[in-house]
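quick one: flavin mononucleotide bound model?
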Amino acid sequence: MSKKVLAIVSSPRKNGNTELLVDEFVKGAQEAGHEIEKLCLREKKIAPCLACEACLRNGGTCVQKDDMAGVLQKLIDADVIVLSTPVYYYSISAQMKTMIDRCLAGGAQLKNKEFYFITTAADAPRAMERTMTDLQGFADCVPGSVVKGKVYGQAFGVGEIKGKPAMQEAYTFGKNC
Ligand SMILES: Cc1cc2nc3c(=O)[nH]c(=O)nc-3n(C[C@H](O)[C@H](O)[C@H](O)COP(=O)(O)O)c2cc1C
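yep, here:
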């Protein structure tokens, strides 16, 4: 069955290691016949959540008029969500955190997702566990979520991930998603 897949890239680095892994996932998912969109947060204007909670009172409309409404709709519409981030100080990128916080406006509409997590770091995979836990925290807040796979990419400089096993892992997750 063809699924709607949304792959979020949150690294500010164009064609960086995180994005290269997402591209492999996308390739696999395309070959499997899924409908897939790659969305780079660095190309979007998304302001941090103001915690005004207006969205909780008004049925889910954020008072901030930026690109998040469109991103949120894509998240709501997706069957499969790929969240990818470089490890920054053992956590997620600011771009990813900002997007996640703005999902408050999604309310009960954001539910029943299959998640894949992709992270990259200079250090060994154990350095990525807290980042994975951060992403898991978001999935835990989305009712009916299942985390189907995690990719740990070890690389530092742009493109260093090429040829590493994580590339094949990302492709295989995409192909089987
Ligand atoms: C601000 C910043 C913080 C970072 N913090 C860590 C870290 O805590 N642990 C680590 O192993 N690598 C860290 N790195 C390295 C990146 O995770 C690594 O270069 C990764 O491959 C970047 O992915 P990208 O090419 O997709 O941007 C950091 C890089 C930056 C720019």
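The mean pLDDT is 97.
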